[in-house]
Amino acid sequence: IDVAGDTLVYRRFGTPSTSLPPLVLLQHFRGNLDYWDPLLLDVLATDREVITVDLPGVGGSTGTTPVDVGDMARDALRFVDALGLKTIDVLGFSLGGHIAQEIALVRPRLPRRLVLAGTAPQGAPDLHRWSDDVYEYACGDGITPENFLPLFFSGSETSVKRGWEYLARTHARSDDRDPETTLACRDAQYQALMTWGIPESSKLERLSAITQPTLVANGDNDTMMSTKNSHLLAERIRGAQLRIYPDSGHGFLDQYPVDFGHHIRQFLGR
Description:
The strands form two sheets. A seven-stranded mixed beta sheet has the order 3-5-4-6-7-8-9, with helices on both faces. Strands 1-2 form a two-stranded antiparallel ribbon. It has ten helices and nine strands. The protein has helices at 38-44, 69-82, 95-106, 132-139, 145-152, 157-170, 183-196, 227-236, 252-255, 257-268; strands at residues 2-3, 6-7, 10-14, 23-26, 49-53, 88-93, 111-117, 214-219, 241-245. Helix 2 (69-82) packs across helix 3. Helix 8 (227-236) links the parallel strand 8 (214-219) and strand 9 (241-245). By secondary structure, it is α/β, with parallel strands linked by helices. Helix content is 38%, strand content 16%.
């Protein structure tokens, strides 16, 4: 779809519901359409419409990736407006969770419900400067299993096994694959992440303005966004529900795709 001079690629599937709005998914740092787990998507699309999108400069979309989360949120809103959607549910994962929070703050009547997965509030502690290991795994010039698995999975035998199974599922598509994100996209998204993560406790007050029912979820050992920041989100967003998945890291939703999918469906309604 053409949006403000850029061509954004997206996938829209599932059965439109008369009672449930479309669920819009916003992806993680360096992720594209093909990084969403097919098992998770199949569960989510059981009884509703699901929409995944590459924002400007990501994957197969044209344009330039902004260096600010607020600008990314405005791009996402322009995409939603171009589709003519008046109400949506939003699932934001990692960087996508930052964008989802911003959408809820600047367009509060658009999202009906929020799912914030493996993400953190603006200005949260231990978010600004990743550890040397996390930086090396996340920001290498190539995205390889050797970097991806220790960043997204816990390191236990069970977790790593499920990580390989996730990679097999997401690489099963051989035709019409979404292009990998560029290094320019990586650098812009990284700058946006670091700016969002500058410690500033006053920024946490913004969360009190999020009034939508919210589900916060993460693995019990997220070394990228820090699991304690999921607890912080749930504490600061009124009435938020919190789910922490065992023996898992940043990619808990890829380790428990079916369970997480059903938990989302239960939260969003059927």
